[in-house]
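Slide 14.
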Amino acid sequence: MEYVNDGFGGAAGALTVENLLEWGRRNDCSDVHITSHQPPTFRKLGELQIGPFSGSKEEYRALILSMLNEFQIEELSYGKDLDFSFSDKEGLRYRVNVFHQQSELAAAIRILRNDIPTLESLNLPPAIKTLAEQPRGIVLVTGPTGSGKSTTLAAMIDYINTTRKAHIITIEDPIEYVHASKSCLVHQREVHRDVPSFADALRSAMREDPDVILVGEMRDYETISAAVTAAETGHLVFSTLHTTGASQTIDRIVDVYPSHSQGMIRSQLSGVLRGVITQTLVPLADRSGRIVATEILIGTDAVLNLIREGNFHQLGTSMQSGAQVGMHTLAGDLSDLVRKGLITKEVAEEKVNNKAELEQYIGFTTGGGFGGNFGGGY
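Slide 15: predicted structure.
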């Protein structure tokens, strides 16, 4: 981790939350970290850099407290961590987590886009639009923290909001992208503010006449079970997991269930799964930005049969052979970006789950077609 280069991004200004966030947004940073023992730190292109701000421990604490209301300050005094959305004076939105470390306050702030991007502007594979057009079932968007899952989901929800006449309910912690009703009626519920938990919101949603339900994250057995049930009863359900591949995603869901129920959940998934999108953001070779690399599993009959039988290790082979329906592996997509000169081989090796598969793909001489990701947009 290094200090930002002299002159990078222009003048820093006074030490205020507004200046920190404005500086981070102006310099295309994705996150801002405030902690007591060093100047504010910014994440740009996936790497941390210390920004051109300085202050005292007391000033850093005051920065964090300035984002909180009285109720949140009281919650913090009980030792609780806080997750919430924050808007600055310009109405620009941020996702904030405030926590204690070494008896001091710290904050991690995600800089959110103020607009809702389109699927086209994100240069996502066409299969993702096809998944958004499904009438029912469950679609999962997975990847590590900071991989753009929320942005992809926001674009999918916006596409539905523009093209269908439906009732969309989102359940989030916190709400990140605010959707105005277009062709659809949109209701957005924030966990701990509008409803106690994801599972409670899902149970209530069944009585609220939804067509589409977005569950911000499937964190536990109760939420996963309720989401799968919602998909079984004819709704289109979107959600996320912090997994790095389609096979690992299915494995994670099944493992949440007790051993005597794992056959049941495999059977349920084989009836409702429409697709798994795994994504990661990769720095471009010229360091001018980041591009999305994806892995896509489509719920074909063959794929669903593998899930029903518990043969998750064979899903990779199905993705490799399923290009005609929009499937591909992460290694395949990364190798395509390497061959096109958009990213370096070294970066691809850092992101891939299967280096041997990556080497095999890179060795091919033919051009790829694993979704045509040209630009990033995140």
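Speaker note: The radius of gyration is 21 Å.
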